[in-house]
Amino acid sequence: MAFSDRELLARLIQCEAGGEGDEGMRAVASVVMNRVNAPNGEFSRVSNGGNVRAIILQKGQFTCTRTENNTQNIYNMNPTAIHYDIADWALAGNTTSSVGNSLFFFNPFSSDCPNYFPSKIGIIYNKIGKHCFYAPTAAYKDT
Description:
Layout: H1 5-17, H2 21-36, H3 41-47, H4 52-57, H5 81-91, E1 104-106, E2 116-117, E3 122-128, E4 131-136
Antiparallel strand pairs: 1-4, 2-3, 3-4
């Protein structure tokens, strides 16, 4: 059975940021929706006008969509009401200003965030919980 966009997003939120509280989960959901609505670059082509599923399942983008040697993945999640509430909030067009137009996030497993997202297509915007969020640089539009 194929999951709906809502179900995929709720599972991704739980898997990627379930331990980061409401703010961290909203931040991750915002990055997904920023990618869905990106006006240019790689994510604009992938979303093709708003395809949430294509953004979530884009190969190599989210740790939680990888199933090989990864038991903590979206297919093994059991979202609760908060995950669905945040998914609904994001799918309704909301994003949080705490990440601005960030298109990237990751957990560097250190107290500091590198200034640039790898390959310098993103620059640090904010750190929320254990995740660093990166806004696109001018170089991103050429991806």
